Structure formats: structure tokens, C-alpha cells
Amino acid sequence: MTDNNEILTLTTAQAIVRFLAAQFIEIDGEEVRVCGGGFGIFGHGNVTCLGEALYDHQNELPLYRGQNEQSMGFAAAGYAKYHLRKRFMFCTASAGPGTANLFTSAALAHANRLPMLMLCGDAYTTRLPDPVLQQLEHFGNPSLGVNDGFKSVSRFWDRITHPAQVLQSLPAALATLLDPADCGPAFIGLPQDVQGWTFDYPASFFEKRVHRIRRQSPDIAEVAEAVALLKEAKRPMIIAGGGVQYSSATAELHAFATAHHIPIVETIAGRANLLNDDPLNIGPIGVTGSDSANTIAKEADVILAVGTRLQDFTTGSWTAFALDSKIIGLNAARHDAMKHLSSPVIGDAKLGLLALGEKLGDFKAPASWMDHAQTERAKWDAYVAGNVSTQNQDGSNRPNSYAQAIGAVNSLCDPNDRVVAAAGGLPAEVTANWRTLELGTVDVEFGFSCMGYEISGAWGARIAQCEKEPDQDTIVFIGDGSYLLMNSDIYSSVLSDRKLIILVLDNGGFAVINKLQNNTGNESFNNLIADCPTIKEPFRVDFASHAKAMGAIVETVFDANALGDAFKRAKQNDKTTVIYMTVDAYEGWTTEGHTWWEVGTPHISKHEKIRTAHKETEAERVNQRKGI
Predict the structure, then answer these.
(1) Would you place residue 114 in the very low, low, confident or very high pLDDT band (cuts 50, 70, 90)?
(2) Phi and psi based region of residue 330 (left: phi greater than 0; alpha: psi -120 to 50; beta: remaining)
(3) Which residues contact 418 (CB under 8 A, 6 or more apart)?
(4) Do the Cβ atoms of 210 and 31 come closer than 8 Å?
(5) Which of 20, 111, 126, 555 could share a disulfide with 566, CB 3.0–4.6 Å?
(6) What sign does the CA torsion over 332, 335, 338, 340 have?
(7) Tens digits of per-residue pLDDT, 542-601?
(8) What DSSP line would sit under 428-483, residue for residue?
(9) Is 533 exposed, middle or buried (0-12, 13-18, 19+ CB in 10 A)?
(10) How far apart are alpha carbons 332 and 509 in whole angstroms?
(11) Residue 1 — pLDDT band, cuts 50, 70, 90?
């Protein structure tokens, strides 16, 4: 133990890094650092002081060199997801544009309730050198700057204007990062002068501390109200969200549903709560869901929503459920538990399921309800089997599609390989067609639906994976649009020796938005490269050469069968491998399994097809719940 009177004179930056290095968490009986390290790009706003401090702690807090600040944030999010929010990474960026580049990834972490610590350069507190390089001047508010914009995308925000503030700010930020209900990004602005100022800190502040994730027991009265609803149910259903995994409650979920004969459907974030062949698993729900899950959702009279924020893709913009169905919201976050006038059970998913199960006693839903749900699931399985096939029923070849690529990889991957997708058409295709082989192995980022997350998030996940399962692979499904937006972490993965397997599926532009454009009566315009009026000579990027230039092993294939063979070779490779294949922009989409989705359409138009599509869209609104 440290002498309570011992003093350590440190700079602000040194104190921050030393504190982070001393924070541990207990996971499965093992104590590990809660901060796994960081991603950094140095500039004049963070290199001299924070860089100096990090240099002296590089063994405890390894620093990964980023190529783009936004992608660093995505990597931090992927790392946190892999570790089920029990560990996090920091991102450090210089003042000005470096920090501004983190905004999108902070929003992604906020939407997905993921821990990420941002340590960013800031303007000088003294203002003596103002205006400085990259400083935004607000004439009527000299204290306002780029960093203030992060207040809208952070769960915790602070600016250190005196070294002593570290004593209060860092523990508060850490508490937010580890809180099941308030988890999200924490932002700490570090003025360039204050980073180097010193303070006499108590040595006890830097003693080793071991943290544990809080498990909040639900209120007895809320449990009783939920149990009363469930006991009256004839057709109960469970929606299992990402919070089930964050609570490590997959076993309790399975036991609860088994005991009470309640079918389970998964959200996008909750994919891989159940194995594909689990008889309780009725499929993914919602806009990118399955006919099986959406059928029973429409018929369910009581819905137990566990660990989900009930996003519109889950609820079909609140048309997926019967208008008179009752919803129970089991969630650590009050905000999510009470949506649409749900009966809230505010608390930890694991403890909540145990409490509900104890009070439900020997209650069981009618066997006919489960039989009906499983019959619907069997129909969906048959559809998926045909959807991922390379041939039609008559033996003719089908056009290359996302689904075929997903099916080929799914049939060959190791059960513990991790799958990553985000934005565009692939989240829907992976959610609908991927067959979960092991729990917790699917990361479909659709909370913020952020293009560019795929490779960067996978790099962060791979860093985490190498800490626990280095022999497994992280597999990326990415379209050409997202690839062009952000691809530099192919280089990062090669530099850091964190192998990825990346499937680049080229549909010639933003094909899924083109599909939406066409489905709402609009003509193709500015989405596919071929339909951009300002492009005179359309051509395909040489993605294979581009990825090879960043150090990856690359193969180009021409159909899903060849993709499968290339994937086998990629599994044997010792560094990042990119497999490139073109897919059809119009054919091969998963056409079943969709609920209604509210998307704004023109109320008037001179185009008849648009007017017709608007009427067809609005006709479904009669099924929309009007809760809050």
C-alpha cells in the first residue's frame, strides 16, 4: 500500500496515463487492465505531453498507430464489442481536424452504447498565443471550440483546465464507461498548455484498483407486474437484444425460455444470442429479419424485450406487433426499458430473467404456440437454403449475390470465427442469411449504420481476439462503397500483424440505396456509378491492386464456389487476405423477411410511379403503434 501522505509531482498527461494503467477489471476470475491500450495519431496538440507520458507506459498501454482518426474510433468500438463492454480502448487525436475526425465514431459508440475514451488536444487555457493553428475562433464566445461539439455524442464530457481536475474527472469518466445503463463514449479535452502543467498528486490515486460491472437487481413491484402479464399470455414472445450478451445472460435467456416454452427472436445487435439450430430460435426480427420471427411477432400478445433499445429496424417502425400486444421492457437503462409505454423491469438482464423465472413458477406457454413458431422457422430455413445457393431450382446459375458469398463462408468458417458487417445492404443480408455456429460471434453494426466501420471495427475486434483466441479469424463482409470510404486499416492490420479475412463484394456503387430509390418509384440516380450524371466514363476500381498495395494477400474470384475455395486458402494465410468478387446490383437480394419500414416519401410528385409508391407506403401506416 502507498503511504497516504506520499506525493507524486506529475504533469496532467502523466497523471492520466498513470491512472489508466492502474485500473483493472475482474473477468471470469482473472484480473486484466480495463483499458487495453489505445489508438493514436499524434499532432502538435497531443504529441509533446501526452505522447511523452504514453511512451513511458507503452508496455502496459500499447498504442496502435492509426491512419485516420475516425477509423481509430471504429476500431475502439469493435474492441469494446468483442469484450462485451468490459474493456475499452482510448483514442488520442490532436487539436482541430484530428479531433473533429473522431466525431462520427463517437456517435457510433454513443448509439451502440459502447465504451470509448477520447483524449483530445484542445486550445490553450491561457489564450496567450491565440489564435493558434487549427483553432476555430468564435467571436462572441472565446471558450467555444471544436471539442464542445462532442457534448452531443458523449455520455461524459469534460475539459481539463487545471491538473487537479484529473482527480475528479478520470474516476467519473471511468464510471460512465463501465456503467451498464449509461455506458457510452467519454470525452476529455486536454488544452495543450495544461497537458504539461504539474500538480502534486496523492500517490494513492495511482494505486491498483479492480473494478466489477454493476448488476442492478430489478424492483420487486416491476417484476410482479411483468409476471402478471406473462401469466395471462397465450402467445408470449421474447425479443433478445445485444444487452443479453453484455450481461453474459445467454444461458439464463435459454433456461428461461426453455422452462416456460417461450419462442425467442433476435435483434440485429442480438444476433448470436442463440445458435442457429436451437429450437427456441425463431429467427431475426424486423425490417432485415425473417418471415418466421415477423409472423409470430405479429401474433404475440405479450412481448418480453430483453436488452434491446427497440430500434425501428427491430420494430418495423412499430408495425411489427399487434396493436393490442403488451410489451415488457427488461433493460439496465430506464430510457430503453420504458419505450412505447412498456411495463418496465429496470435492471440487469441476467438477474431480471432469474427474478422473472422464479416468480413465474411452472407457467408454460401453450405447446401449440411453440409448435407454430417452429413450423414457421422451418419454412424460413428452407428459404435461406435456397437463397444462398448458386443455382435456381431448375439447375440454372443465379447471378452472384451477397447471400451466396455469405453462404459460402458460413459453410467453411470455424464456429468461433467472428463476422463483422455494417451499413449498406450487407447488414440485412448477414442478419437474414448467416447461421450462427457459436454464441457471440456476429457483429453487425446497425445502431448507427456507419459506412467504414467494417474493416476498422474488425481490426479492433481482431486486436481483442488475439488476446483470447489468436487461432480464430475475424471475417469482414464489405461492399465497394464502404471500402472506398475507409480502407486504410487493411494497412493497419498488416502493420500490427492482426490478420483479417476481408470479402469485398462489388455491386458498382450504392446498390441497396438504389434499390430503395427504385422501390419508392424513383428512377436510378446518383447511386450506381453507371447512373451518375456527372460521371462521363464509368469504370470499376481495381480493388485487388489497391488492397495488395497496402500489404494484403489478394485473390479475385468470379463466383461463390471459387470464393469458397479462396476462403479456405485465406484461412491458411498468415496475414490479412482480401477476396474480391462482383455481385449483381439488381438480382439476388433477400426478398423475404421484411417488415414495413417508415421512410419519407414525397406527398406530391409529377411522376406517377412515385405517387403510387407513396400511397402503397402510407397504406401500411394503419398498423403503426402510436406509443411514445
Answers:
(1) very high
(2) beta
(3) 82, 441, 442, 443, 458, 461, 465, 472, 473, 474, 475
(4) yes
(5) 555
(6) negative
(7) 999 999 999 999 999 999 999 999 999 999 999 999 999 999 999 999 999 999 999 999
(8) HHHHHH----STT-EEEE-SS--TTHHHHHHHHHHHHHHHH-TTS-EEEEEEHHHH
(9) exposed
(10) 40
(11) low
**In this structure, what CATH number is given to the domain that contains residue 94?**
3.40.50.970
The C-alpha cell that represents 203 in the structure block? 500517490
Grid cell listed for 415: 464456429
User: Coil, strand, or helix at residue 606?
Assistant: coil
Query: Tens digit of pLDDT for each residue in 402-451?
Result: 999 999 999 999 999 999 999 999 999 999 999 999 999 999 999 999 99
Among the candidates 331, 352, 381, a domain finishes at 381
> What number of other Cβ atoms are within 10 A of residue 374's Cβ?
16
* pLDDT tens column, 25-43: 999 999 999 999 999 999 9
Helices (H), 83-191: 97-100, 103-111, 166-177
Domain count along the chain: 4
* Whether residue 205 is found in the same domain as residue 286: no
Q: Which secondary structure element, helix H or strand E, spans residue 257, and what is its range? A: helix 250-260
Q: How many CB atoms lie under 10 A from the CB of residue 574?
A: 8
Any idea which residue has 472565446 for its cell? 142
Contacts of residue 610, Cβ cutoff 8 Å, sequence gap at least 6: 520, 521, 522, 601, 602
Query: In this structure, are 228 and 101 located in the same domain?
Result: no
Interatomic CA distance for residues 425 and 590, integer angstroms: 10
Cα separation of 409 and 317, whole Å? 32
Domain end among 184, 211, 238: 211
C-alpha cell at 474: 475475424
Q: What is the 3-state secondary structure (H, E, C) of 70-87?
A: HHHHHHHHHHHHHCCCCC
3-state secondary structure of 401: coil
| Structural domain boundaries enclosing 618 | 598-628
- What angle separates helix 402-412 from helix 560-572, to the nearest 10 degrees? 40
SS3 sequence, 179-232? Answer: CCCCCCEEEEEEECCHHHCEEEEEHHHHCCEEECCCCCCCCHHHHHHHHHHHHH
